[in-house]
Amino acid sequence: MSIFAVQEKIMTKNMKIAVFGGGSWATAIVKMLCENEKEIGWYMRSTYVIEHIKKNKHNPNYLSSAELHPEKLFLSDDINEMIDYADYLIFVIPSAFLKGELDKIETPLNGKVIFSAIKGIVPETGLIVGEHFHDILGVPFEDIGIITGPCHAEEVAMERLSYLTIACQDDYKANFIAKKLSSRYINTKTSDDIIGTEYAAMLKNIYAIAAGIAHGLGYGDNFQSVLMSNAIREMKRFIKKVHKMKRNINNSAYLGDLLVTGYSKFSRNRMFGNMIGKGYTVKSAMLDMSMVAEGYYAAKSAHLLNEKNEAKTPIIDAVYEVLYENKEPKRVFQKLTEKLN
What we know:
The protein has helices at about 5-10, 25-35, 45-55, 80-85, 95-100, 130-135, 155, 170-180, 195-215, 220-240, 250-265, 270-275, 280-290, 295-310, 315-325, 330-335; strands at about 15-20, 40-45, 75, 90, 115, 120, 125-130, 145-150, 160-170, 185-190. Helices cover about 55% and strands about 10% of the residues. Strands 3-2-1-4-5-8-9-10 form an eight-stranded mixed beta sheet, with helices on both faces. Strands 6-7 form a two-stranded antiparallel sheet. Helix 10 (about 220-240) runs antiparallel to helix 11, helix 14 crosses helix 15 and helix 15 (about 315-325) packs antiparallel against helix 16 (about 330-335). The protein is globular. It folds into two domains: about 5-190, NAD(P)-binding Rossmann-like Domain (Rossmann fold, 3-Layer(aba) Sandwich); about 195-335, Orthogonal Bundle (N-(1-d-carboxylethyl)-l-norvaline Dehydrogenase, domain 2), CATH 1.10.1040.10. With about 350 residues, the protein is α/β, with parallel strands linked by helices.
């Protein structure tokens, strides 16, 4: 065995992993981890859901078709207990509720490795999750990672082949999580672009809302293809402004995630946009959905951030106008069609 392999084995031996969040993506990640681990920590607020999982082996509210393994789970509704328990903390709490949960933390995060599987932005700070942990909670960037890629929780539950990208500045930590998530139906790769991949995960939700609005308004597949083609170029311009480095925007963490979120029947952001296009108000669409559409909050943050960066973002601008300026979707998208090519 090489010195590198020995060092990696020593560093990762007996490291415990905990997942924070009780939604569909958190449930999917727990399922993935249980393929490889003897015990996984799982924090969620609901004591009822915890007891239900222990007795019935599935989450009653989200991804209920996924069979879970209570004998492998250390479940708790105490966030500080779970932080004490684990070395690697995977946060999958919707960004709209993240700060409220983080405000409960009393246990120091020193020495903890934080991975975010949250594809959104923290509304209170306007920061992507990795930046929030670094800027607000003082976690070093080398201890922060991102789990992203074109991977819907519903297909994980069905054990359909899916792909994930694990991004971290520290190769050891990225490879550790990549191995823990890998299985016969999950392929993983690693990246060092923690800022770019997380911004891409946030932006693709906005573009999925745009795709949904277009569908609700009656635009067909021909227009959707042009919309997605323009969206990936817009994403490239935006990310280049916030974090310039060499990256291939056509990789699955960027383009792949955009396509599946823009087209899939499982996409909550596309569903949200579709309701808006069909005439729902923003408030009524949000109330009608059982899950959070991260792109709603991301649209405002991306628009405000881009006022400073000044990238050309007609699609983001159009979604912002519909969601936050109450402009009529039909007129906004008519103008948008003239800006696309």
